[in-house]
């Protein structure tokens, strides 16, 4: 997300990336941009080159970046703690890794989460912590107004985990933003622990009730605040609400970091001085500083590598159990959902196509779309064979892309 220029339209950015020596007219460049967007699976955007990055979903932004680089790795180099462990053709590395570390990387996505899921008890149904009735959301104004969420009805029982799955652009993040009060719905009503999230006077109270972990780790922290400042801001909101007396604030913040597996040494660092996985842990620590009852996670691991991804998922589930949180977990990987969700909602084109008990839904999906999603996630789980063979004996030969 941070790779796109927020002030330039999609079309202008793709055209800017075209080599100048390619002597193309303005119209030819535009046609090429349209073709590239279709190639990365965004044909609908090819008619909308004037859109800005914030008007795209997370997956659409990623595809737009791919349209700019259109690559696939031929050779792979594996790094660990600053050392180059091994390198070779992508096929050799994936099918016959020499290092143990590489083996954990190539198999990590097949590992199940530890601990399994804690089945939430349906008997004696707890009150819903989150409920939505007839919620619709529109983006844009006038002629450009477009409905992206249609008539959503949803209830999340307190203490349970709701998984929200669906293809890129189906409206998952929009739904999360509406629950967080960051977007006002055009119709319908939302309640989170009896609070209306869009009601400004209740904002601080809402922050203590419900926290959001974004898809974009870099964009969720203020780049001018160090980690101590980022945590302190949250701790102070917590203090004001609960009148908690915390005498030693820095050591309180160090404990928060400890809770998410980070060392207090990073308190003085700025977000850009952390890795993506460390940043996501800081964001989780900051959310926990407010002791919320509800946690909304929007693809919290999509930007992380497979090993760190599993660690962060384990961490979120561990915290959920320890604090008895109500969790809303958005993702496109149904295999992950199977591990952690009690109930599941499947979205397509801004509508809920199916919802119900996660286990029942996995064993007998009713809609054809859910079956498609399941098939796709099982395919990606088993897909480690790499068949593309570049010419051998070359080290980053011209025309090849080196993946690190
Ligand atoms: N600010 C905006 N203005 C106009 N359109 C928007 C805006 N934000 C999102 N959209 C559009 O709304 C639709 C839903 O976007 P949303 O971000 O909710 O999708 P998503 O399900 O989270 O997808 P992903 O898995 O790619 O993150 C997409 O078609 C997107 O292009
Ligand atoms: Mg999204």
Description:
- This protein is α/β, with parallel strands linked by helices.
- The chain has 14 helices and twelve strands.
- A six-stranded mixed β-sheet has the order 7-8-9-5-10-11, with helices on both faces. Strands 2-1-12 form a three-stranded mixed β-sheet.
- The chain is globular, with a radius of gyration of 23 Å.
- The two termini are 20 Å apart.
- The protein binds adenosine-5'-triphosphate (ATP) and magnesium ion (MG).
- The site of magnesium ion has 7 residues, from α6.
Radius of gyration: 23 Å
CATH class type of the largest domain? Alpha Beta
SS elements, strand count: 12
| Strand order within the widest beta sheet | 7-8-9-5-10-11
Do you know the CATH topology of the largest domain? Rossmann fold
Fraction of helical residues = 25-40%
Gap between N and C termini, in Å? 20 Å
Mass-distribution shape: globular
Small molecules in complex: adenosine-5'-triphosphate, magnesium ion
Order of helices and strands: HHHEEHHEEEHEHEHHHEHEHEEHHE
What is the residue-averaged pLDDT? 81
């Amino acid at each position: 997300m941070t790779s796109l220029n927020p002030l330039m339209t999609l079309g202008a950015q793709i055209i800017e990336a075209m080599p100048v020596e390619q002597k193309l007219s303005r119209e030819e460049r535009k046609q090429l941009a349209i073709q590239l967007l279709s190639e990365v699976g965004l044909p609908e955007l090819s008619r909308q080159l004037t859109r800005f990055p914030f008007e795209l979903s997370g997956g659409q932004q990623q595809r737009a970046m791919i349209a700019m680089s259109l690559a696939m790795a031929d050779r792979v180099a594996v790094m660990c703690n600053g050392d180059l462990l091994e390198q070779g053709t992508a096929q050799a590395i994936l099918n016959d890794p020499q290092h143990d570390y590489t083996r954990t990387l190539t198999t990590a996505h097949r590992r199940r989460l530890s601990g399994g899921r804690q089945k939430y008890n349906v008997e004696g149904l707890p009150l819903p912590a989150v409920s939505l009735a007839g919620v619709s959301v529109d983006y844009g104004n006038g002629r450009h107004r477009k409905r992206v969420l249609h008539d959503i009805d949803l209830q999340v029982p307190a203490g349970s985990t709701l998984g929200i799955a669906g293809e890129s652009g189906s409206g998952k993040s929009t739904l999360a933003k509406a629950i967080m009060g960051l977007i006002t719905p055009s119709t319908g009503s939302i309640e989170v622990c009896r609070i209306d999230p869009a009601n400004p006077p209740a904002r601080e109270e809402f922050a203590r009730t419900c926290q959001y972990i974004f898809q974009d780790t870099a964009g969720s922290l203020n780049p001018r605040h160090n980690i101590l400042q980022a945590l302190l801001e949250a701790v102070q909101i917590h203090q004001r609400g609960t009148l908690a007396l915390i005498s030693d604030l820095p050591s309180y913040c160090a404990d928060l970091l400890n809770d998410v597996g980070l060392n207090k040494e990073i308190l003085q660092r700025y977000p850009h001085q952390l890795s993506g996985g460390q940043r996501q842990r800081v964001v989780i620590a900051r959310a926990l500083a407010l002791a919320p009852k509800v946690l909304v996670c929007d693809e919290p691991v999509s930007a992380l590598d497979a090993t760190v991804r599993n660690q962060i998922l384990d961490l979120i589930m561990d915290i959920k159990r320890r604090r008895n949180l109500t969790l809303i977990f958005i993702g496109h990987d149904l295999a992950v959902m199977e591990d952690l969700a009690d109930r599941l909602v499947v979205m397509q084109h801004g509508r809920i196509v199916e919802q119900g008990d996660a286990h029942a839904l996995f064993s007998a999906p009713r809609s054809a779309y859910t079956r498609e999603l399941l098939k796709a996630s099982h395919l990606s789980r088993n897909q480690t064979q790499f068949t593309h063979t570049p010419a051998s004996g070359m080290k980053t030969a011209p025309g090849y892309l080196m993946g690190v």
